[in-house]
Amino acid sequence: MIAARIGQFWRMLMTGLCFALFGIGGLLLSLFWFNLLLLVAGDNDKRRRLARRSISVSFRAFLWFTSATGVLRYRFHGAEILRQERGCLVVANHPTLLDYVLLASVMPETDCLVKSALLKNPFLRGVVRAADYLINREADVLLAQSQARLQRGDTLVIFPEGTRTRPGEKMTLQRGAANIAVRCRSDIRLVTVHCSERMLDKQSAWYQVPPARPQFDIIVGERICIDDFTDVNNQEPALAARALNRHLLQKLQSVNKPIS
C-alpha cells in the first residue's frame, strides 16, 4: 500500500516534469531550430518536411522519457502501416492529451487539423506554423486546403469528436472528417487509442494521476475506401457524409472494449 502511494506520487512529479519539458521543448524548437530552417532550407516544401520530421523525432524522445520515468507505457499495433500512409485521412478517437503526440511520433511527415486557438499558445504556435498544420477555419476554405494537401500526398490526422472524450458520456462525432473524405474523395485509415486508466482526459487535471501506471494501446485499423460511400446509388455528398459519419462512430466506439 505504501509502495503504491509512493509510486503514484512519483508519477505525479514526473508528469509535472514532462509537462514542463513539453512546453519548453516547443518553445526552444520555435525560437532556434525552426528559425534556423528558414536560413538553411531552400524552399517552403523542404522546410515543412524538415519541421514535421523534427516534431516527430521530438515526440519520440518525449514518449521515451515518459516511459523511462514510469509515467506511462505505450505500444502500437500496426505502426508500420501508419508510417507508410500517404494521401489519406487518419481518423482517431481522442481520449487524452497525448493522442496526437503518439500518432505523430510514428508518422514522420503527417499533417493535422488543429484548432485556431493553438495559434495563441506561446509554447505551441511556432510549432503549428513551422509544420504548416491545417487550421480549422470556414468550411469552404478548409475543404479547398484539405484537397490540395491530400493531392500532394499529405496524410491528415483528424479527431472527429472535436475535443477529448468525456468519460461516461456517449461518443459523438462532428461531421467535418466525413465531409472532407467525401468531398475530397479521400480514403480513411481508422485508428483507435485506448488508455487503461483515466489520465489527461477532458475532466482530469495533469496532477490527477491514476493509482496504476497507465497503458496506452494504439490500434491501427482498417482503411475505409471512400468509393464504398460515394458510389452507393450516386447519393448526394451530404447524405454520403452522414452515412460515413455513422460508420465511423460505430467503428470508433469499439475503443471501449478491453485490450487483450
From TrEMBL:
The chain crosses the membrane at residues 12-34. Keywords: Acyltransferase, Membrane, Transferase, Transmembrane, Transmembrane helix. The keyword Phosphoprotein does not apply. Residues 88-196 form the Phospholipid/glycerol acyltransferase domain. InterPro entries: Plipid/glycerol_acylTrfase. GO terms for molecular function: acyltransferase activity. Pathway: Lipid metabolism. The keyword Nucleus does not apply. Pfam families: Acyltransferase (PF01553). PANTHER family: 1-ACYL-SN-GLYCEROL-3-PHOSPHATE ACYLTRANSFERASE, PHOSPHOLIPID_GLYCEROL ACYLTRANSFERASE DOMAIN-CONTAINING PROTEIN. This is Lysophospholipid acyltransferase family protein. It comes from Pseudocitrobacter cyperus.
